[in-house]
Amino acid sequence: MQKMDVSQFKDRYKKKFQERFAFNYENATKQEQFVALGHLVKDLYSSDWKETVDTYQENKQKQVYYFSMEFLPGRMLKSNLLNLGILDVVQEGLAELGLDLDEVASGEMDPALGNGGLGRLASCFMDSLASTGLPGNGNGIRYRYGLFKQKFIDGHQIELPENWLRNGNVWEVRRENKAVTVRFGGQVSLEPDNEGNMHVTYHNTQNILAVPYDTAMVGYQNGTVNNLRLWSAEIPYGEEYLFPTEEERNGVKQITEYLYPDDSNYEGLLLRLKQEYFFSSAGVQSVVRYFKQLNLDWSYLPDKIAIHINDTHPTLAIPELMRILMDEEGLSWEQAWEITKKTISYTNHTILQEAMERWSIDMMNLLLPRITQIIMEINRRHIEKKTPLYGEDLTNRTAIVANGEIKMANLAIIGSHSINGVAKLHTNILINHTLHDFYLMYPNKFNNKTNGVTMRRWLQISNPGLTDLLDETIGTEWKTNANDIILLKAYAEDKEVLARIDAVKLENKKRFAKYVSEEMDIEIDPNAIFDVQIKRLHAYKRQLLNVLHILDRYQYIKDNPGVDIPKRVFIFGAKAAPSYHYAKQIIKLINAIAEMINNDSSLNDLIKVVFVENYGVSLAELIIPAADVSEQISLAGKEASGTSNMKLMANGALTIATMDGATVEIYDYVGEENIYIFGMSNEEVQKLNAANSYNSREIYEKNPAVKRVLNMLIDGSIPGLEDEGQDIFDSLVKYNDEYYLLKDFDSYINAHKQIDKDFRNRETWNRRALLNIASSGPFSADYTIERYADEIWKLGAQREPEDLI
Ligand code: H2P
């Protein structure tokens, strides 16, 4: 890309604006100012984009395709500017034009095409693939609305559609000429031709057009621009198609409308299955089409293509690739199977049974008859082959098809060459418990790839103050080699640097406090401890434990008016799945408590509760740099990795945590004196499970602090609660507290008391913040991606045709 100075930028911007809108930029809305800038930026990278794609193809380079139901890219303007190396020039240029970059950037919609860590991980990986110069592309769904927009009404979560495309999307390019057809329903017949080869014929299928929209994934100042391809469902056109009825049109549109439509009923489930096949099939078809252009024998497919399935949602890529290779390209089952397994790899992101996808065979058969045949045959062969080796019991436990259902994780493991967990502890749990039977069969398929986060978005963009501090102390090498952040350790005793860490944090806290004041009408003191829990709302993540601590603290302050403890602001950001009743009750509870506490002047502002509405990437960018305390309090063994833990640490928050997920690795790097660990370990949880002796009611009866706090849920102390208080109380006392909150209660409270004490000593606290920042380098997604590339996708070591001879 050609470099641009400030004055060139200003000229180009004015011209671009004029071209697009035919009036002056000064009179424009933020959104229009953004659109013009977006188009300008796109012009700047478009030649690199084309060149990157061409080079991959000319060199017949092996490419990876990351299939994911979710991507959570966040706003892309600043990330593109940073990666193009023109963030400063544009900021300055806009300022000279009388515009503020942050204001203009806020004119971009933040697409909610993901739900939580899973989708954000996919986007961090996209950034890291391009930034490390690796040939890697995304494949997913272009949801018209994505995940719902969250509103709180009377403290309840209300879901609204988020029309993020209403003003168009500057970054995407519609590629109609690359559309493919995806078939649903109907019947299939297999008939032999004269030579005895089987031919598959489809009857009465519903054909849907999958149209790709491509978005550039710009690498960090390296000229690499990869592709994120998102598919949109459309009615096929052409003379052979009759004019569709309204019902047909709606049925098609529906496929790419919402992320995670309510699946608590048959229709919703069917729609979700459609979505999964839709983007898996479209992705595989486009990958195969690309491979065919290389003019190589089919056996080279795994040498040129890696398909990664992010969680089980894209698992149908396995039977789909088999289908194409056999039915359309005439390969034998054995050939197709070898190629498929070598091409596909899978990441498991959770051990929660409820999250393990299963589909009814009947539904699958109705929607995808040929795919179902293939899955049944994969299963039949698996059982036939493994039973003599491992016996009936073990083999049957690994079956893909059982009790009228298809188990997607089992299919993903059997049909791929690699399965990885997302943190060391998680991978160990997979190997030793959840997927142990598979581990006995395929020990070499299992490996760990601890998650990572892109430091570009989560440090450079969201925390410019800290970025400057790092640049001025340790130089700029850390921006391409995050391990260099460790050099900051040398400043652990430097009082000036420690004071600057404090000042940067305070600035970030003021920025967030301003948002809270303007948007929520709550005043918070930037000198208070900002205590942050931001993640999907789920019982295992134990936001409720955080709530119990708040109530305990509330009681303590009430009992001891004028007590001298640091002020705390409890900050929550979380969405609950629309049909997850209990999670929504917890949202209501937090909001009710916020209302009660924030309006109680007798508390002297010693506690405040801020539950931000519609938490997403943009809010995370505001909250994370402002955090003092990072809450990672899941029941040990349940959180596969976590990634907010890494972002918060890199921004100098101290972690209060159970030994779970990647927090265990954070503990290893940062050392026990710089983190607050509490609660049961995974082993202790396992033992308690095995003993079957847990009795939460006994804790309730015997522990006065617990009793007092829990009683608040049911005795009317918290205004505005309806059934929520009783239901939540019951979950903890009557139904034996599935996630052991009461068991971990005391140690959690004690850890928080320690935080109160430690926060007082500013210098020591800042030193520990510094050590957290300094230890965060290994969690850069660049390293994670390099490990995927080397060990799973083998992007560097591809086999060329000569190697075969
Ligand atoms: C999940 C796991 C996290 C993990 C993330 C990415 C599904 O994300 O629960 O532990 O870090 O995938 O691997 P989340 O809960 O945030 O939706």
From TrEMBL:
GO terms for biological process: glycogen catabolic process. One of its GO terms (cellular component) is cytoplasm. It catalyses: [(1->4)-alpha-D-glucosyl](n) + phosphate = [(1->4)-alpha-D-glucosyl](n-1) + alpha-D-glucose 1-phosphate. The modification N6-(pyridoxal phosphate)lysine is found at K647. It is an enzyme of class 2 (transferase). The keyword Repressor does not apply. Its cofactor is pyridoxal 5'-phosphate. SUPFAM superfamilies: UDP-Glycosyltransferase/glycogen phosphorylase. Keywords: Allosteric enzyme, Carbohydrate metabolism, Glycosyltransferase, Pyridoxal phosphate, Transferase. Pfam families: Phosphorylase (PF00343). Allosteric enzyme that catalyzes the rate-limiting step in glycogen catabolism, the phosphorolytic cleavage of glycogen to produce glucose-1-phosphate, and plays a central role in maintaining cellular and organismal glucose homeostasis. Phosphorylase is an important allosteric enzyme in carbohydrate metabolism. Enzymes from different sources differ in their regulatory mechanisms and in their natural substrates. However, all known phosphorylases share catalytic and structural properties. Belongs to the glycogen phosphorylase family. NCBIfam families: P_ylase. This is Alpha-1,4 glucan phosphorylase. It comes from Jeotgalibaca dankookensis. The lineage of its organism: Bacteria, Bacillati, Bacillota, Bacilli, Lactobacillales. The gene is glgP.
